[in-house]
Amino acid sequence: MTELKNRYDFVLLFDVQDGNPNGDPDAGNLPRIDPETSHGLVTDVCLKRKVRNFILLTQEGKPGFDIFVKEKAVLNTRITEAYKGLGIDLDEKPAKAGDGKKRDSKGKAQGSEVEQGRAWMCKTFFDVRTFGAVMSTGANAGQVRGPVQLTFARSVDPIISQEHSITRMAVTTESDAEKQGGDNRTMGRKNTVPYALYRAHGFVSPHLAKQTGFGPSDLELLFKSFEHMFELDRSAARGLMSMRKVLVFKHGSELGNAPAHALFDRVRTVRTQPGRPVRNFSDYKVDVETAGLPQGIEVMELVG
User: Fold this and answer.
1) Rounded Cα gap, residues 72 and 65, in angstroms
2) How many Å separate Cα 296 from the centre of its chain?
3) pLDDT at residue 95, rounded to an integer
4) Phi/psi of residue 226, each to 5°?
């Protein structure tokens, strides 16, 4: 597998219209918000989930593109499968493939076994070699620090959350029907953001990519997932979500040619009609300052 030779920093700009982009279960599933500024938030975990879902849908069954953290998965079972795939018996004593000492704990890897398990997990699971994972539970495959990291997404402007009453023309149980005398209606609530443009930042480290085996083809697939992550993950609760721009700063070296924050500052969103409520992406203008870019930096606009 060829190795990444360049560092990458990128900006994701996506929006939501009449939907809840990322509900907070600790707040009645209301849209996440910064209480001091009223800016909306979408967690990095939420964004990674959509990348994982895209990989599952488009790469299903292909070797090396399974997903470790997926719905209803039992993670310790998946870690144990690594050692079965390697032919390592974690119940044998002493640890033949380990460090030569007596096994400290039955069913748990030790010594060089952990390194083998970690390598198997990176090779098998796209999300492990991309985002990393804590796999020190159960059979123990150690920890992996992923080469790709995402920040929380934050709305460009403060948001408001609207609450809507909704009616279901049915009830859940017979007793509910009896109480209503056959009317059979259920009232509920739905919370939405009328419109908001969110901005997230990301980083790709070639040094960490070498440790996990994350290569150029993986990077290409990752960027493709950003483009389609909302198209294949629709939900009535999330309304209309769209990826508007993916702006990538490609460095001419592994160490990088400029600090990430200095490059991100070159991407600016400007209101086209100040003083009016924003309700569409056309109410913003996105400017990328390319004049005076540090030597070795290339700007790529993958979406937009």
Assistant:
1) 18
2) 28
3) 67
4) -60, -40
CA distance 204 to 220: 12
Pair of tokens at residue 156:
């460009």
Count of C-beta atoms within a 10 Å radius of residue 230: 20
In 3D, which of 233, 158, 248, 145 has the Cα closest to residue 201?
A: 248
pLDDT for res 249: 98
CA-CA distance, 131 to 102, in Å (whole number)? 34
pLDDT digits (tens, 9 = 90+) for 158-179: 999 998 888 888 878 888 877 8
225 φ, ψ to 5°?
A: -65, -35
Q: What percent of the residues of the chain are helix, what percent strand, and what percent coil, each to the nearest 5?
A: 25, 30, 45
Between CA 232 and CA 83 the distance in angstroms is 34
In Å, how far from its chain's centre is CA 195?
Answer: 22
Q: Which of 250, 263, 265, 253 is nearest to 297 (CA)?
A: 250
CA-nearest of 143, 247, 191, 207 to 16 is: 191
Separation of alpha carbons 145 and 132, rounded Å: 5
Which residues have C-beta within 8 Å of that of residue 220, sequence separation ≥ 6? Answer: none
On the CB side of 111, CA atoms within 13 Å amount to 15
- Report d(CA 230, CA 29) in Å as an integer: 20
Please report, for residues 27, 59, 75, 124, 284, the alpha-carbon distance to residue 81 in angstroms, rounded to integers and kept in the order given.
37, 20, 10, 11, 49
* Cis status, amide bond into 35, omega within 30 of 0: no
Q: Which residues pair with 171 in a beta bridge?
A: none
Structure tokens at 292: 């005076």
| 72 Cβ contact list (under 8 Å, min separation 6) | none
Name residue, tokens 């982009």: 21
Under DSSP, the state recorded for 26 is G
The reported pLDDT for the residue numbered 13 is 98
